[in-house]
UniProtKB/TrEMBL annotation:
GO process terms (BP): protein maturation
Residues annotated as binding Ni(2+): 2
Molecular function per GO: nickel cation binding; zinc ion binding
PANTHER family cross-referenced by the UniProt entry: HYDROGENASE MATURATION FACTOR HYPA (PTHR34535:SF3)
Binding site for Zn(2+): 73, 75, 96, 99
Function, in words: Involved in the maturation of [NiFe] hydrogenases. Required for nickel insertion into the metal center of the hydrogenase.
Keyword Zinc assigned: yes
Protein species of origin: Halococcoides cellulosivorans
Entry keyword set: Metal-binding, Nickel, Zinc
Name listed for the protein in its UniProt record: Hydrogenase maturation factor HypA
Amino acid sequence: MHEFSIATGIVDVVREEATDHGADRVESITVAVGEASHVNPEQLETCLTVATEDTIAADATLDIETVEPYGSCSCGWAGRPETSDRALAYAPDLRCPECEARIDLEEGDGCRVMELAVPSEDADETETTP
């Protein structure tokens, strides 16, 4: 299950960002998962729950958003591939609807931390880091 290694990488990024902002805990984490990334969002959430145990993100709220594939072709076409509902299975072979060439995905094929919230120095506020 590669989701666990992705989750531990996310925890490393979160820990580093939180430390850079002087935080000793993380309140929330937002992760974007591309539909063509070959990452299962439900499994990633489970793995993140385990990977954050005993860390500064142990009590953080997890929000996992899915991102639809978006790509472009050398012929000038750009948009969402027609096979986006099956992008997980067909990501290596997404074809341009205009010329049938392989398209280059610009969105929806990765997994990244979009935002994390840490307590600010003022105890009544939360600092959000994009």
